[in-house]
């Protein structure tokens, strides 16, 4: 599945992207991008929604206290979000607090590293923590400099499924990681991220959804 990541300064603009994204199977609403965060206006759409209020340390577009971020994720869940995504680094207390308020909404626990791909052992520990904190889906997204790093990230998808039965989104950011965004789906990642159009990328190396769809079709997903 392709998830179009939507980082727009206003609700109107974000909704325009949602209305014009036929390639998307789901959308990620980046609340940290909105000048005035809101969740309710997004629920007129029939496609599943992920809400996240990304922490600045992991690529968020503005600083916001943890309490504010948790508040908006809880709001999103109350309105019927399919997923909420919180950084694992927020810690067990914040995760438990968010988790206790979820009904149907599934919890994504995520780890992003915009500098580098840490060692596999380190990333496996992060995934173990995600499992311990009862993530429904895990996510590990790191900057890759060499194709081998991309390969390591992809191998985590298989490892997490075999060892913990955890659906894991994992791929590499940056130009050297572009291929991993497509290939991750072959290895069982539940979804991958793409941009709505050129210029609307929310992370380095993101492909435009339309192009990604073509690649997947050629490769046979
Ligand atoms: O985790 C991810 C993946 C991402 O960083 C990317 O590289 O496409 C984009 C983010 O918006 C999203 O939350």
From TrEMBL:
GO terms for biological process: 3,4-dihydroxybenzoate biosynthetic process; amino acid biosynthetic process; aromatic amino acid family biosynthetic process; chorismate biosynthetic process. 3-dehydroquinate binds at residues 5, 28-30, 54, 181, 202, 206. Its EC number is 4.2.1.10. Pathway: Metabolic intermediate biosynthesis; chorismate biosynthesis; chorismate from D-erythrose 4-phosphate and phosphoenolpyruvate: step 3/7. CDD domains: DHQase_I (cd00502). It holds the Pfam family DHquinase_I. The active site is at 112 (proton donor/acceptor), 139 (schiff-base intermediate with substrate). It is an enzyme of class 4 (lyase). It catalyses: 3-dehydroquinate = 3-dehydroshikimate + H2O. It comes from the Bacteria. InterPro entries: 3-dehydroquinate_DH_AS, Aldolase_TIM, DHquinase_I, Type-I_3-dehydroquinase. GO terms for molecular function: 3-dehydroquinate dehydratase activity. Keywords: Amino-acid biosynthesis, Aromatic amino acid biosynthesis, Lyase, Schiff base. Homodimer. Belongs to the type-I 3-dehydroquinase family. HAMAP family: AroD. Involved in the third step of the chorismate pathway, which leads to the biosynthesis of aromatic amino acids. Catalyzes the cis-dehydration of 3-dehydroquinate (DHQ) and introduces the first double bond of the aromatic ring to yield 3-dehydroshikimate. This is 3-dehydroquinate dehydratase. The gene is aroD.
